[in-house]
Amino acid sequence: MLTTVSALFEQLNDGRVRYCHWKSNWILEDTLAGETDIDLLVHRQDAPSLRTVLQDLGFRPATELGAAPFPSVEHHHALDEASGALVHVHAYYRVISGGSLAKNYHLPLEEMLLRDVRRAGIVNVPSKGAELLVFVLRMHLKHTTLAELALLTRDWGKVRQETAWLATDEACAQALALLPVWLPGFDRRLFSAALDGLRTPAPLWRRMILARRVRARLRPFARRGRVRAWLAGERNFVDKAVYRLRGSRKGLTPAGGGALIAFVGSEATGKSTMLEEMERWLGEHYTVKRVHAGKPPSTPLTVIPNLLLPALRALLPEQRSTRVSARRAPGGEPGGKNRPFPLLFGIRSVFLAYDRHALLTRAFASAANGGIVLCDRYPSTESGAPDGAQLRHPDASSTGGPVRRWLADLEARLYRDTPLPDLVIYLTAPLEVTLDRNRVRAKTELEDYVRFRHARSSNLRFDRVRVQTVDTNRPLNESTREIRRIIWEAL
User: Fold this and answer.
1) What is the pLDDT of residues 175-220, one digit of tens each?
2) Where along the chain do its domains lie?
3) Is-cis flag, bond preceding 310, omega within 30?
4) 393 Cα distance to chain centroid
5) Whole-number Å distance between alpha carbons of 370 and 75
6) How many other CB atoms are found less than 10 A from the CB of residue 404?
7) What is the CATH number of domain 250-490?
8) Which among 470, 440, 477 is positioned nearest to 263, based on CA atoms?
9) For residue 31, which of 88, 114, 99 has the smallest C-alpha distance?
């Protein structure tokens, strides 16, 4: 059990908050290990007490992107520092259920679930009969639209396992006894047929007929009419598909908003590895997008010049960006720093600045709309540094002609107008370590290039931005744990 989860239930129990973990208790051990959501039903009068407990334990609220959030439902996350896992509390003050997409029904069963709870370890759970009653209704309310059926079919194996766990003879008898008390208008024979449809299980067409009858009985508890519910479900289905394509399971965002987080550092300091780790970690809960500012995609203005770039590099190898930068860098060729830059190099630098500006402007907008954007590399304020302005150095003279001055001014303006990130994570490692890593990784760079990039990345500067330096010359799990803590503090 995670430390944060244990502390949560201890405080809920000590504070006498009326709650229960109201569904999916067949995998309660996974829930306590932080592998699934903690689905709490809480008495509405105890909502302030719950929020106080969550705040004391470092939980932060989150909101749903896209469609309007479901009423009486809240999301809260906390970082379990020992494991690095994000703990997700899904708090309900009413039983809002139905399909996964629309949740179109408020089932008035809160008192039933909270009245006769039992203790499973340190967690309050409802009686098995009460949980079974709600489960049968929930599952049949999912047999609605094609989108809902697609989601249900994907998880049908889990539905059968949960049915087998819940539907003991004792629980079935208890559910049938509870039904006329809490849903007096619901036919017991229909409930028994719906239960049998899950236990056997019945063919899909039979379950769909039963589901239609269940929905008709529950119509008084619907939140919307059929058409509005269908439209809401289809919209949510599209949103979920988009979030899945981006690697996000939940489509949530921190209530404080999204963030643009840049990972910088020299070659072989672990940027790609850390980005993959953070994308997987955050994508379990939030809407996450990953971009590469070092290699921005072409824009309509630059697509043709960028297509010609490999041929130009082959024809004019002395004007390759890395060679020109090496000659003009401190310690390069004598006089190289003050020598006018080649025009082809200047044009290429401006196009690259334009592509980066366009990419990072879109990334900034995504973060402003609630997404978390993870960026590989970012333009430094330091002139001549990797991924920053290349055409003007602090002691450069005004020689070179008006065209070169215009290109330098244009490049500088593009970088100056590029939005700043919310957080820069500056990864460092000794040169010897980066050389060793470069030799064994899949994409090996030339040793001179790694040395050159390491030297140029040794003093990156980012003005007006929070910068956190992380030494990656240690076990991966230690660096990962520190970066997770830094990101969580920034969100």
Assistant:
1) 999 999 999 989 999 999 999 999 888 888 888 889 889 988 988 8
2) 3-243, 250-490
3) no
4) 39
5) 15
6) 20
7) 3.40.50.300
8) 470
9) 88
